[in-house]
Amino acid sequence: MEEKKRRQFMKQAAGLGVLGIAAAGGIWAAKDFKMQKGRLRPPGAVPEEQYLSMCIKCGQCLQVCPYDAIKLEDIDGKAGVGTAYISPLERGCYLCEAFPCVLACPTGALDHEANVIENVHMGMAIVVNESACLALTGKKVTNEMIGRIYDHTKVISAEERRNRKVVVHNSDPEKVKLQKELLVKLSEKEGKSCSLCADLCPFEPDPKQAIGMISKEGGLFPEIREACVGCGACVELCPTKVLQILPYATYADVYEKNKGSKHA
Ligand code: SF4
Ligand code: SF4
Ligand code: SF4
User: In total, how many domains does the chain have?
Assistant: First the structure.
């Protein structure tokens, strides 16, 4: 499956002119990223061409997703009207145990083998706006920055959204609990130095295999590592849009191939 996905990415990337513009160290300029138009698909998605024919637009994956991460493509959308996708700037995937979205898919457009994290590969995180990273300049996470995530969390009340504060109740349905727990973790970061991307990466058993903060230019900066599965949680949580996901790309596609190449 991995090899097929790699080939699919290479084909897409070549068609879109992505290859050859990547930067040393895997840092991509935002203008370059805009050229990659492919959608981020839910976990286990088969290669894009197959996915477009296998996704029957039933919305089953979307209904079981406890994070409200999955959407269906609009008529004027980017690829395949009605097909399921994830828009990580609005809501990333949180790599649920047993991947309910995958299990709910009736056609195998989300490969049923992808019910464990080892078999999931959605894409690869990339840096698109390095200078905006708060950790690099030691800036703190503000209430307004956190507010963006409260604003797009659907399961909380208007008051909780306004106050940017939630309390998790035992009686809350599981979906509400999970989303509130995320907001609690986020709020704990208010007023502190930012490392949200690395701290809240849901990769298991150890997020440090996927992302970690390293010293850079007198500050800190996230380093994307080999185990990243491209879930997009870091993209959603980053207050300043430093990161994005290249759908279907692998670590080798982005980071190993471009070692030593010049920034475009
Ligand atoms: S793994 Fe969970 S959060 Fe991710 S898309 Fe599937 S159901 Fe949603
Ligand atoms: S670094 Fe972590 S949160 Fe970000 S895309 Fe990779 S696995 Fe997901
Ligand atoms: S979430 Fe990560 S990339 Fe974004 S500002 Fe914070 S440390 Fe930088």
Answer: 1
